[in-house]
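re: ur question from earlier - yeah i can do the single chain one, its not a big deal. heres the input i used so u can compare w yours
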Amino acid sequence: MSNARPLATLLSEPPLRHVLASGHRGARDWQRLVAEVGVLAAAIRRKGGGAWLIASDDPYEVALGLLATLHAGAVALLPANLQPGHLSEIAAGAVGLLGDKPPPGCRRPVLALHDLDPNAERLPLAPLDPERAEIRLHTSGTTGLPVTVRKQLRCLDAEVAALDRLFERPRAKAVLATVPSYHIYGLLFRVLWPLAACRSMARDTIRFPSELLAAVRQAPGALLVSSPAFLKRALPVLDLADLGRHLGGAFSSGGPLPPEVAAAYNQHLAEPVVEVYGSTETGGIGWRSVRSAAAPPPWTPLPDVRLMIDDESGALMVASPFLPTPGWHRTGDGAALLEGGRFELRGRVDRIVKIEERRISLAEVEQRLAEHAEVTAVRVLSLAGQSGRLGAVVVPSAAGWQRLRQDGRDALRTALLEPLRPHLDRAALPRRWRFVRRLPENAQGKTSTAALSALFDAPQDGDRPHPLGGGEHGRGVRLRLHLPWDLRCFDGHFEGAPIVAGVVQLDWAIRFAEERFALLPRLERIEALKFFEVIPAGATVELELGYDAAAARLHFSYTSGERVCSAGRIQLQAAP
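and the output i got, formated as tokens:
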């Protein structure tokens, strides 16, 4: 039995004493929310209703904008991200925007979500019709640009009631979060469920592990709404015993949480991390908690969720009250049904991938790249074993080849990435690139993922930088090297701040020396090896090589400006 209040009547009888939200923008209670919803709803009604885009990640402001829009009889729009280009695209189909300021190029009216005049005209707040009140979310589609997902309030109401019935935490009085509040997961767990269960919402999004420990100490017993990306990053630096003494429970969604990570947390937490599987289109589908990394359990469907498998594709099919229409919905995930109604997931069957819990449409990335004047054809793929990074195989146009010849591959890569940044999340930007004369095709004229992947496996330009210039210097040579971000050596070393590993610097020195001095790879030992400064991705360095044939000894050094980054000697075996 759920104790959550219906979303349609939330503002009819608000709690008298309850801190609804707190954070850097100040604390808010229910009386303040009721007043501000009335003022904002009246302003929206004066503008003629229609659809309004809510552009904020503050859960209180999302709640305010959502409720005011619905009470005004308008449609609430929530974005897929807060990138200016994406907001401009969605705002073009809206009457106006609720937030701080319009994105560049947007000429729609803007209504602020803070500093509302409490003495302004208010709209009376009658109960909402859960069938007519509509929220539209945006998420990555399989064929190109982000798609719109329509949800009646009754769908969200049903899911909140199911969550409260299944995961009730009576002693949890507050909700902390590391995820945005405008995605379906954050909207449900960070905004709507706390509203319905009378919990306080933390207005500030937690971005670093140190912030998490400080937050849970200030709000003992709080629930954490998080993601696999954050939990994985935080694991090595968190004091899990300390966290377990204060945290009242945790949820993870948006992508798979590695079983070993979940098990590590669950050894210390009083309430295990609950993983929730679902999508924007379907809402929640299943849940599990992993206590043993060696034996992760299958997924259990959420209440009132029915499942079947599509015989042709192997995709999971879902029917539930969380869907806007009756009947079966085909997901993009392969699955197998087990005894007792539980199920296992078996990977994606469409062209949507998840990187850092962001749903990314490969078709959208391709479409935006194909619009560039320097691109004739392009295919984008997720690279296996590359921490979910994307690779782009590009057939440049005549202008693209000209830029490649004159300025180098890094210049072309930068030119192609620049128009993507306003529209796509950083995780959706390709990290590795191949520029080819034509896409690989089989006998049927089709380009397979395997053929594209093979281009990144081949030992070509992604393995080491191409010299920009250089020549003889004393008894050796000096090469000028620019290090583009998509070099293979930067994969996993390190995420967010990649650098050239010492072993890679040695490898480059030996390989360039083999070419310049016609050496055979007869390594005997390394001497006087010193690393003074890191060499980051994007840097330009000079590699100086000197070869003493009589001693069979190779000297090398990497410099950046006046600074020596590394140096050493490589003793080669004497020729027989």
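The mean pLDDT is 88. not sure if urs matches, ping me
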